[in-house]
Amino acid sequence: MKQYNIDILALSEIRWKGVGQEMLDHGHMLLYGGEDNHHRAGVGLMMSPAAYRTMLKWTPINGRILFARLATTHTKLSVIVCYALTNEMDYDIKDSFYETLQAVTKNIPKHDVLCVDCDLNAKINENGALLADFALSNDLVVGGTLFEHKNMQKYIWSSPDGSTRNQIDHFLITRRWRTSLLDVRGYRGVDTQSEYMLMIAQIQIKLRAKRRHSNI
């Protein structure tokens, strides 16, 4: 995180059981939510010490969705980390995931900057339609479509043999705050210990430290 000047890092498929938070090296905090009985799915949010001091609350919804709210100078920043199901899964199960995601989104104050980040397993297929409907219903823009980059900087996932590449991770932000989003791109050469590249979204919003935060 320090090398790339990242304050908030969304994680998916961490496969930790249960819910909790853990202090890591250099004061970084990891918030995570997983399934109770299985080492599968799981989402997390890693925060720099400066970002963690601005957190107002965080809520692990289930093993695929986590919510956190932070203070900024002029408004609040709401972050949803999610790990969607793959396209071959049953439609009803995927629809249930988006219903839960919509319920979380609906309770976020309208004046907040809303960012939805992580592995949405969505490209131009059934999952892509679900993602597009979710974005349209909540007045969100898909950040990866706004900036011109080389294909190698757009593809976030590649098969182990390197023959197939896809852009299935996405960053969404409230349309009203679209001008605060400076860039979204993938970075090659980062050791993520998986087939995924590191995706970084640059947002120009000044965080403001709060004395208290809570987990609800």
TrEMBL record:
List the InterPro entries hit by this protein, alphabetically.
Endo/exonu/phosph_ase_sf
Determine the domain of life of the protein's source: Eukaryota
This protein's name: Endonuclease/exonuclease/phosphatase domain-containing protein
What is the protein's species of origin?
Artemia franciscana
